[in-house]
UniProtKB/TrEMBL annotation:
Residue span, Polyphosphate kinase C-terminal domain: 339-499, 509-662
Active-site residues per Swiss-Prot or TrEMBL entry: 442 (phosphohistidine intermediate)
A Gene Ontology cellular-component term: polyphosphate kinase complex
The protein's name in its UniProt record: Polyphosphate kinase
Post-translational modifications reported in the UniProt record: An intermediate of this reaction is the autophosphorylated ppk in which a phosphate is covalently linked to a histidine residue through a N-P bond.
């Protein structure tokens, strides 16, 4: 049934939508039903997310804020007003964060016999142990820098915690020696192996200290010639230098570049500082770093709460989520040497992290060793530091295979690892393609060519997740192994584009930036036409982010035609559901649980012949227009049934799902059976893994 059209459709501000998502993360930290150490982990995720947000989004808005007034006006929303609104909300959330830690987490730790102690809480025996630990494990890791006239500039690493030391009251002051000295030293968390030090237990009581406080406790040992040493903490966040083209393009982009070139080349930063820091110390830091007052942000005694990812487990597994060991795949072989045989037989859906990423590395390793395999092509977006995927590609190169690797050097915060492996592969003889000018390669594809009976046969792996063994353990993604020529031929065409830069058209794949937007519009138009004809019409979208204005307006148009739309959005969503005349047929939910939901799914009713796509692309302008993305159809009926079943579990979740206002959906009917989608997914895939696996025919 068509609805009355709203002449002025409204959208939610992107920045506030992202902050609403991060508040869902904080809700998990506040939830007493979440195991205690997992709540601490969600505190770390919240903090880490906010760090990245300031490095990218806030820094970008501050750069846009410096543009001329006429240029700013063409951006649509005023960056100054956006900054004001988001910083207000950040302040509210940070206050809630601090209250959660002090009033919920800390008391609960004590109830569980875990004591996070400072240098002021130690017994004499503990203090003696800490002094000994400092001398043997910490002291040699410290590199103090004296802030005096000999130091012209102090460079602070991004996101690293530093301790400032004010030395005063010298025991025996020498001639020409200052009564006070200011010293800075980097907190050596990485080299130490952890931000935390676990003290000896006392009965059933556990004691943990920040590494910061271990140094505070022992700092007089470093500077015995001074009677007083005051220690405070600082942390600098730098502009991540995200290309502004991620936000705007075209003629406006040229104007902005021209405007920015006339301004200072220095980038903005924020310096978090302990409010108890002496004024002369803060002044010295500002002078030696060039930080201005506008970059100062009052923090607390401790910075980098994300280090709580490494909080010790203390041998208490009951304070963590139950263990979910990776499940064997029901249709893929469990022994080496059979992957290509199984893929030749049928399509297989890999569900990470419930099933092991080892199937991907086995696929590549077997291809690398197979004498009939002639070539391997892979896109690498985020590469693990100790990448088994990259090692398999090195092995393939050594074995004489033609190896093509598309490495994205603009993958935010993973540039260093990507460059490392790109250089190693290039030296080994692989054909390394360093992305596409003006585009970011975000698709996740692997293609293997094998000579069989004199013919070239292709095998492919298409995924929503990266070729990364580490993130595959915490990101919930789907991957498809297939030898279906409809799909493998077109994957080959995508790699052809990487080689010759000539745009292609595709029959089965939806590929950005060429056809993805237009084909999505056509699929939506099909549902609009069905709705207007009085037939069932629906769209189900599972995305990380829904931000593109044109796609949102298209969904509003479908709503007004009577199309039923369900949205499962993990992060940003600028669409406002439930508005009469605009979105009354649109429902929206978001889920945060132990794994990060990362898969993207597009489902269209298609008059009873449902179309299901799995994709690397969110519905953001950057994904649809400025990235190479691939959405692939699920053609195998059994795999399509599995994808839909898993999607339906998420649609039914009433434990971890919230509406777009962050209200838990399960609270409406407490008597309804509880469905927790991620746990139900594991149980479902576990039941499949116990079934007898069909025999694989030999090639």
């Amino acid at each position: 049934m068509e609805s009355t059209k709203n002449p002025h459709p409204t959208l939610l501000n992107r920045e506030l939508s992202w902050l609403t998502f991060n508040e869902r993360v904080l809700q998990e930290a506040q939830n007493p039903d979440v195991p205690l150490l997992e709540r601490i982990k969600f505190m770390a995720i919240f903090s880490s997310n906010l760090d990245e947000y300031f490095k990218v989004r806030v820094a970008t808005l501050r750069r846009l804020e410096k543009l001329k007034k006429k240029t700013r006006a063409k951006l649509g929303e005023d960056p100054t007003q956006q900054l004001h609104d988001l910083l207000q909300e950040v302040g509210r959330q940070q206050q809630a964060f601090g209250e959660t830690f002090r009033n919920q987490i800390m008391p609960e730790l004590r109830r569980q016999h875990i004591h996070l102690v400072s240098e002021h809480d130690l017994t004499d025996a503990q203090r003696e142990w800490v002094h000994d630990y400092f001398q043997h494990n910490v002291q040699d890791l410290l590199s103090p820098i004296i802030l005096d006239d000999n130091l012209h500039h102090l460079f602070l690493k991004d996101q690293s915690v530093y301790l400032t030391l004010l030395l005063s009251e010298p025991v025996k002051q020498k001639k020409h020696e200052d009564e006070e000295r200011v010293i800075v030293l980097e907190l050596p968390s990485k080299r130490h192996g952890s931000r935390f030090v676990q003290l000896p237990d006392e009965g059933e009581e556990h004691y943990v200290m920040f590494l910061d406080d271990v140094i505070r406790c022992c700092v007089r040992m470093l500077f015995p010639n001074y009677q007083r040493v005051q220690v405070n903490a600082i942390k600098l966040s730098r502009d991540a230098e995200l290309d502004i083209q991620e936000e705007v393009s075209g003629n406006l982009m040229a104007k902005i570049k021209s405007s920015l070139q006339k301004r200072e080349t220095g980038y903005p930063a924020r310096l978090l500082y302990d409010p108890a820091m002496p004024k002369q110390v803060l002044k010295a830091i500002m002078q030696k770093t060039g930080i201005g007052k506008e970059e100062l942000v009052e923090g607390s005694r401790y910075h980098n709460f994300r280090d709580f990812f490494g909080f010790p487990g203390l041998g208490q597994p009951e304070l963590k989520y139950p263990d979910f060991p990776p499940l064997p795949h029901p249709t893929l072989p469990r022994t080496a040497g059979k992957m290509l045989d199984a893929i030749a037989e049928r399509d297989h859906l890999l569900n990470l992290p419930y099933q092991s990423f080892d199937y991907v590395t086995r696929f590549l390793n077997e291809a690398a060793a197979d004498p009939l395999v002639t070539s391997i092509s892979v896109t690498l977006y985020r590469v693990a530091q100790k990448s088994e995927v990259a090692k398999a590609l090195l092995k393939a190169t050594k074995n004489g295979k033609q190896v093509t690797v598309v490495v994205e050097l603009k993958a935010r915060f993973d540039e260093e690892s990507n460059i490392h492996w790109a250089e190693k592969l290039q030296k080994a003889g692989a054909n390394v393609i360093f992305g596409i000018p003006e585009l970011k390669v975000h698709s996740k594809l692997a293609l293997v060519a094998r000579t069989e009976a004199g013919q070239n046969r292709l095998y492919a792996y298409l995924s929503t997740g990266n070729f990364n063994e580490v993130t595959s353990q915490i990101y919930a993604d789907h991957g498809l192994f297939t030898a279906n020529p409809h799909l493998t031929k077109e994957v080959g065409q995508v790699f052809g584009y990487f080689l010759d830069r000539q745009p292609r058209s595709f029959e089965y794949l939806l590929v950005a930036p060429f056809e993805l937007r237009d084909k999505l519009n056509a699929l939506i138009d099909r549902e609009i036409k069905l709705a207007k004809a009085g037939k069932e019409a629906y769209i189900i979208l599972k995305l990380n982010a829904l931000q593109d204005e044109r796609m949102i307006l298209k969904l509003y148009e479908a709503n007004q035609a009577g199309v039923r739309i369900e949205l499962l959005i993990r992060g940003i969503s600028c669409l406002i559901p439930g508005e009469p005349g605009q979105s009354e047929h649109i429902q929206q939910r978001g889920m945060v649980d132990r794994y990060l939901e990362h898969a993207r799914l597009y489902v269209f009713g298609n008059n009873g012949e449902e179309k299901v796509y799995v994709s690397s692309a969110d519905w953001m302008a950057r994904n649809l227009d400025r990235r190479v993305e691939v959405a692939f159809p699920i053609l195998d009926p059994a795999v399509k049934s599995e994808v839909r079943y898993l999607l339906d579990l998420q649609r039914q979740d009433n434990v971890k799902s919230r509406d777009w206002h962050n209200h838990f959906l399960g609270q409406e009917d407490p008597s309804a059976p509880k469905i927790r989608a991620q746990f139900a997914t594991y149980d479902y895939l576990k039941s499949l893994s116990k079934k007898k696996k069909p025999a694989v025919a030999k090639r």
